[in-house]
Amino acid sequence: MKKEDSENQVDPAAPVKPPPHGPLRKYLQNTRTWTYSFLAVLPLLCAYEILILTFNRSEVGTVRIGADVLIKQVLATIGGTWHLSLGSVVLLIGVFVLLAERRKRIDISIRYMLWMLAESAVYAIVLGGLVSIGIGKLFSYLPMADTNSDFSSLSFGLQLALAIGAGLYEEMVFRVVVVGSLLRIALLMINNRAVAYIPAALIGAFVFSLVHYIGAMGDDFNLQSFTFRFVFGLALNFLYLLRGFGIAAWTHSLYDIGVVIILALR
Q1: Which structural domain range is residue 206 located in?
Q2: Which of 15, 34, 123, 160 makes a 20 to 30 Å CA pair with 1?
Q3: Could you give the number of structural domains in the chain?
Q4: Does residue 12 sit within a domain?
Q5: Nearest one of 248, 236, 238 to 44, comparing CA atoms
Q6: Looking at the domain assignment, is residue 156 inside a domain?
């Protein structure tokens, strides 16, 4: 055998190199990380705080998302003003995330961030539309639920702020904290992550829907709206599991923003 022929032979014992990741797979893997989730929700945090501080001047008292108030009350027990506490927490979370995932060599790309926004918009339209149509058909014999009068009496800017804040803070509380904690509890009894996620998702969605009827800004209880929020909460739970916190937060915010805009145009 010629020397060049022997050099061209493939050694069957040699490890086979995996094919390079395609652009779609690379995008999905990168944007599911906590690094991208942290970077993605920063615009939501800034927009929410700016709009709240701007439009609350014309309101009696300070109107904020219930989950936001809950987080700030917890932070207040630690000490310091809520601005300092929240800013410190966001900064610490960001530093922790970047340090924890630095070995992954995550490719930070503005293009990916724009794709995340587009992906979230598709989910907001598709999931919101499917759940609305499905619940509408299910409860077609019942009258439509009335819009919360307290919320509808707020200025458009404040409604927009609350829509943005809902995606950020409610996803942080109900998806990351509540569903995450329920999943860990379920894993103590069920040695299967996929199966354990079912009760965590169901209970988390129930709690998510129920809290919308609690407090001064809560809606009057209505079975149709409760069921819609429960099913939509389930969808967000599985979206959080599959695509991460950033996509779930943006999907929730964009859906709520769309609802506010539609109601304003009526």
Answers
A1: 22-265
A2: 15
A3: 1
A4: no
A5: 248
A6: yes
